[in-house]
Design a protein that fits this description.
The chain contains 9 helices and no strands. It is mainly α. The relative contact order is 0.19.
Amino acid sequence: MSPLELPSAARVRLDFAAASVVTLPFAVYLVITRFVVPPTDDNWARADPILRLFSRGITSWMPPMLGVLAAGLWFSRARPPTAKMKGVLREVGIGVLVACVIVGALRLAWGTHVPPFVPPEESAGPGLMLNMAAGYGEEVLFRLVLLPLLFLALVSRVPRPVALAVAVLSTGLAFTLLHEPASASWSPTLFTTRFLLPGCAMSMAALLRSPSFIVAAHCTAHLVVPLVFTG
């Protein structure tokens, strides 16, 4: 099946089970940075709003624990064959490359400060650990859990295009709204950015192309961003 064809339930299960494995190296990175370069009070103050919904202790450990749990649950439902995992490696490589190119292009265009349409937490401000905790946690919660579960719940009841549209739009809205309670103030620009890009566009790419590609791209961006943007 071509990556851009509307996915079936069986393909979604295999794709997201494979993608759950892709998250695990980033979980290891999270744990290592938690001990090697623990976040400071200033890092916490500048962290992604979604991380400030919980206590620091929960935020420090919940993302990697959820990632491991999600991988275990997906593999209990679908075990991708070896040939599938080889294809996943290709998608991961493309995702890493795309993330580096986009971040590099933004750095060349706007210098060391993030563009005005990019949330300010996408910078060195939150530090290494909290940067990854945000991107990783978002991938696990929205891309590995909410998005595929919504699609799978709908695909046997409505036409596949409708199931895809509802899953993507619902995930995009949930992604955006969950950032609002701890935000300093409401910004129409940042609301739109969160809804359209990490909310809807990445979710659509996960279903139409590959969740492994999106997981690798988003998490890699959160590896690179704190190294190139000061604020």
